[in-house]
Design a protein that fits this description.
Strand content: 15-25%
Helix content: 25-40%
Oligomer: single chain
Distance between the termini: 52 Å
Strand order of the largest sheet: 10-17-16-15-14-13-12-11
Number of helices: 16
Length: 523
C-alpha cells in the first residue's frame, strides 16, 4: 500500500490478479462481517485499513478465453485466442451487453456477503448473444462486484458522500495495480461502473517501491514516509468515468445486478445440497472409480480433541496404529477472531517429546508465518504447511522464499489453499518442487465441525490430473482437510487424496477411533 501511495485516510487501492483485493485506509479500526481487518498500525502506525475481496476476477477472463479457444494439442497459450482480440470484440458491445448480466461468484463470495456456496450465473442469455457479449458481461460482472465491495468498505467505515463528491471525506479515486491494468477496456469498465477515477502509477510493483520508500526514509533521503511517497510515487494515467456509460451502469447495478445475488442464493445452496453439500448424499462417482495405488493416511486433527486430556487423546491415536497428527496453529490475527487462537511451538515440542514416533503436520494459519520456522523446527515439527492466502501481494515470490527456508531448516514443506482458491495459482510453486504436499481445505480455516464444501472435489481431480501428467513421478501428496465422514472421505480418496485430516469424525466418534477409521473407509 505504501508503494502504491495509499497512505491517507479514506483512500482506496485495488490489487488485481486471478482475484481482486480491495483496501480502504481508515483513521480508526473498522471491522464488519464480510470484511477482513481491521489491520491496526498499517499502512502507517497512526492508521488502520480494512480489506475486501472477490474470489473470481482475472481467473474468469482466463476461464472464458480457454473455453472458447480451440484446444487441439497446443500447450500454454499457443493456439488460444488473445485477450486483445476478446477485448476488441467486447469493446464494440454497448454497456449492459445487450441485456446480459453475469454474477461473478464462480468460486464463492467473499465481500460484502461471505458465502462459500455462491456460484456464477448468467441472466438474460439469448440466441443473439455472441462470445463478445458473454466476455463483456463477465468483465462487467467483476466491476459490479468491485463497486459492491467499495461501497461495503466505505459504509462500514462510515465514510460520508454526496452526489457532487464535494466537501466530503469519500475518496473518488482508486489506485489500481495488477493484471487488469493490461486491459484498457477493463480499466475503463472499472471506472464507469464504480463511478470512480482510477489511477495507474508509473511503477506498479507496490512491494518493491514500498521497500525503496521505507529505505529512503531510513537512510535520511526523505524525512517522512509522506514526503517520500509524494516524491517517489508518480501517477502515469488517470482513467475517468464516462458520463453516459456511468449513467447506464448505475441503473444496471441498482435495478439488475444488485437483485441477482439475493434472488439466486437459495438456489445455489439447494444445488450444493443436491450435489452433496450436506456430505451425506454424495452421489457415487461415475468417472472417478480408480482405486488408490497406495495406502491412504488418516491424520487426526487435535483441534477437535479433548484439550483437557490431550495426552490421553494422542495415546489413543498411537494405540489405534495412527502415524500422523495434524496440528492447526492459529494466532488470532490472520483469522481476526479471539476464538481462532490455538497451539504454539511449546505444545508441538511437548507432543514431540512424549510421542516422538508421530509425524507432526503443522498447519500455519498465521500472520507473518516466516517467524515460526525456526521455532517449529526446534520443537520437532515434521512438516510445516503454510497458507497460500497469507503470502501477500506477490504470493509466488513470498511462497518460494518461505518454502526454501522451511526446507533448509530440516522440515518438509506443504502449502494449503482455501476452498475458493484456484488450484492454478499454486502450480508454479509446485513446479519448484520445494513443497511435498498440497493441503486442500474443504472448510473455511479456523473452526472445527464445519460441513464439507463439494467445490473441492474438482480441485482434487485437477491436482491429481496435473500430477499424473508429469513426465516423472511427482513428489507431492494431496491432503484434504475438513468435513470428513463416510461419504466425503470415499469421494476424496477416489479422486486422488493421499491423506485425509479428520477431527470431529475421529475424536468424537461414539465408538472410538477404530470404528471411526472404518467409517472413513480406512481399514
Amino acid at each position: 500500500m505504501i508503494g502504491l501511495g495509499t497512505i491517507h485516510p479514506h483512500r482506496l487501492c485495488l490489487i488485481t490478479g486471478s482475484s481482486h483485493l480491495h483496501c480502504l485506509v481508515t483513521p480508526h479500526p473498522v471491522s464488519k462481517s464480510g470484511m477482513w481487518g481491521a489491520y491496526r498500525g498499517a499502512p502507517l502506525p497512526h492508521l488502520s485499513f480494512a480489506e475486501g475481496g472477490q474470489s473470481s476476477t482475472g481467473v474468469l477472463a482466463r476461464w472464458f478465453r480457454d473455453l472458447v479457444s480451440s484446444s487441439g494439442d497446443a500447450k500454454g497459450d499457443e493456439g488460444k485466442i488473445s485477450y486483445q482480440r476478446l477485448d476488441e470484440e467486447a469493446s464494440r458491445i454497448a454497456p449492459g451487453s445487450d441485456g446480459l448480466v453475469a454474477l461473478e461468484t464462480w468460486q464463492g463470495s467473499r465481500t460484502p456477503h461471505t458465502d462459500p456456496l455462491a456460484r456464477g450465473a448468467f441472466v438474460g442469455l439469448t440466441l443473439s448473444h455472441t462470445r463478445a457479449h458473454i466476455f463483456r458481461a463477465i468483465l462487467e460482472s467483476v466491476c459490479y462486484g468491485t463497486r459492491s465491495c467499495f461501497d461495503a468498505l466505505e459504509a462500514a467505515a462510515e465514510v460520508r458522500s454526496d452526489p457532487s463528491g464535494k466537501d466530503v471525506d469519500r475518496s473518488n479515486e482508486v489506485v489500481i495495480a495488477g493484471g487488469a491494468t493490461r486491459s484498457a477496456l477493463w480499466l475503463q469498465l472499472h471506472a464507469d461502473i464504480s463511478g470512480r477515477t482510477f489511477l495507474l502509477n508509473e511503477n506498479t510493483d507496490g512491494p518493491l517501491l514500498g521497500c525503496a520508500i521505507l529505505a529512503s526514509v531510513g537512510s535520511g533521503i526523505y524525512s517522512s514516509v509522506d514526503e517520500a511517497v509524494e516524491n517517489m510515487v508518480r501517477v502515469k494515467d488517470r482513467i475517468e468515468p464516462n458520463a453516459e456509460a456511468r449513467k447506464a451502469y448505475d441503473r444496471l447495478y441498482e435495478e439488475v445486478y444488485s437483485k441477482v445475488r439475493p434472488s439466486v442464493t437459495s438456489i445455489f445452496h439447494a444445488m450444493a445440497e443436491l450435489r452433496g453439500g450436506e456430505a451425506s448424499e454424495l452421489a457415487e462417482p461415475t468417472t472417478y472409480d480408480r482405486k488408490p495405488l497406495r495406502k491412504v493416511v488418516v491424520s487426526p486433527s487435535i483441534l477437535a480433541a479433548d484439550w483437557s486430556d490431550l495426552k490421553g487423546e494422542l495415546q489413543k491415536c498411537v494405540d489405534a496404529g495412527l502415524t500422523h497428527i495434524h496440528v492447526d496453529v492459529f494466532d488470532g490475527v490472520f483469522l481476526d477472531s479471539p476464538y481462532a487462537l490455538t497451539f504454539g511451538p511449546q505444545m508441538v515440542k511437548a507432543i514431540n517429546n512424549r510421542f516422538p514416533s508421530l509425524f507432526l503436520d503443522i498447519h500455519l494459519c498465521v500472520d507473518r508465518p516466516t517467524r515460526f520456522i525456526e521455532a517449529m523446527a526446534a520443537a520437532g515439527a515434521s512438516r510445516l504447511i503454510f497458507q497460500w492466502e497469507a503470502m501477500g501481494e506477490n504470493p509466488l515470490q513470498a511462497a518460494v522464499s518461505l518454502a526454501r527456508s522451511v526446507v533448509e531448516s530440516g522440515m518438509k514443506c506443504g502449502v494449503s489453499i482455501n476452498p475458493t482458491t484456484d488450484v492454478q495459482e499454486i502450480i508454479p510453486l509446485l513446479q519448484t518442487e520445494l513443497v511435498d504436499l498440497v493441503d486442500i481445505l474443504a472448510v473455511e480455516p479456523g473452526f472445527g465441525g464445519q460441513t464439507f464444501n463439494p467445490i473441492v472435489l474438482n480441485k482434487i481431480s485437477q491436482l491429481q490430473q496435473w500430477r499424473d501428467s508429469r513426465e516423472r513421478e511427482s513428489r507431492f501428496a494431496i491432503l484434504v482437510d475438513g468435513g470428513m465422514n463416510k461419504a466425503t472421505s470415499k469421494s476424496v480418496i477416489e479422486r486422488g487424496a493421499d491423506i485425509i485430516v479428520a477431527g470431529t469424525a475421529m475424536f468424537r466418534h461414539p465408538s472410538g477411533l477404530s470404528e471411526a477409521l472404518k467409517d472413513l473407509n480406512i481399514t
